[in-house]
């Protein structure tokens, strides 16, 4: 938690950056996602192979299946989701070991489970096997799940704006060249009529 001055990048509001978001303000200062990370505790229900990518439908299928398969489990692991513009790390809450790390460019879809809004998931691409996996989590409450999804959306937007800035400035970016023109990228293309703030 730092007192950041004026943001170094300008983000589109959530309702312009992602089609399904009704809110108009991001939760965090962009610099927090650039220089630090937003950390959230959640339960990790597990991951499953996604045979056919169908966007939100794939995440919702995985959520339903993982919820059913973990109902009988006595103890579901608690993890810390650490979100930044570079991606998501999930860390064992007990021993602080990093369990997995997913680069933002390999995350394609994040959504809440419509049947249980405290459950949410995101899909990643495994670069070694070229398969997609859906990772499913349950937050301690619905509002936290919503905030995590919104923060993931903001991380996509920050990464996208940094890539644009790097292109304009001619600097080499930490993001690969293919970041912007990947067909399965999570960030929608800017609309033709972007509203300018007066």
UniProtKB/TrEMBL annotation:
<keyword id="KW-0040">ANK repeat</keyword>
<feature type="region of interest" description="Disordered">
    <location>
        <begin position="171"/>
        <end position="198"/>
    </location>
</feature>
<protein>
    <submittedName>
        <fullName>ANS1B protein</fullName>
    </submittedName>
</protein>
<dbReference type="InterPro" id="IPR006020">
    <property type="entry name" value="PTB/PI_dom"/>
</dbReference>
<dbReference type="GO" id="GO:0048013">
    <property type="term" value="P:ephrin receptor signaling pathway"/>
</dbReference>
<dbReference type="Pfam" id="PF00640">
    <property type="entry name" value="PID"/>
</dbReference>
<dbReference type="InterPro" id="IPR033635">
    <property type="entry name" value="ANKS1/Caskin"/>
</dbReference>
<dbReference type="GO" id="GO:0046875">
    <property type="term" value="F:ephrin receptor binding"/>
</dbReference>
<dbReference type="InterPro" id="IPR011993">
    <property type="entry name" value="PH-like_dom_sf"/>
</dbReference>
<dbReference type="GO" id="GO:0005829">
    <property type="term" value="C:cytosol"/>
</dbReference>
<keyword id="KW-0677">Repeat</keyword>
<feature type="domain" description="PID">
    <location>
        <begin position="37"/>
        <end position="166"/>
    </location>
</feature>
């Amino acid at each position: 938690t730092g007192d950041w001055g004026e943001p170094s990048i300008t983000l589109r509001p959530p309702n312009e950056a992602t089609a399904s978001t009704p809110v108009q303000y991001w939760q965090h200062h962009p610099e927090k996602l650039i220089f630090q990370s937003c950390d959230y505790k959640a339960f990790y229900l597990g991951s499953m192979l996604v045979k056919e990518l169908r966007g939100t439908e794939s995440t919702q299928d995985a959520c339903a299946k993982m919820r059913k398969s973990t109902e009988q489990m006595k103890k579901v692991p608690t993890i810390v989701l650490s979100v930044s513009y570079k991606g998501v790390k999930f860390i064992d809450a007990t021993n602080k070991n990093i369990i997995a790390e997913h680069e933002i460019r390999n995350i394609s879809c994040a959504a809440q489970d419509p049947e249980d809004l405290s459950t949410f998931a995101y899909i990643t691409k495994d670069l070694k096997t070229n398969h997609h996996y859906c990772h499913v989590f349950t937050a301690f409450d619905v509002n936290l799940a919503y905030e995590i999804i919104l923060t993931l959306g903001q991380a996509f937007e920050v990464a996208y704006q940094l890539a644009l800035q790097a292109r304009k400035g001619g600097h080499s970016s930490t993001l690969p060249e293919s970041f912007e023109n990947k067909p399965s990228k999570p960030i929608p293309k800017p609309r033709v009529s972007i509203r300018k703030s007066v």
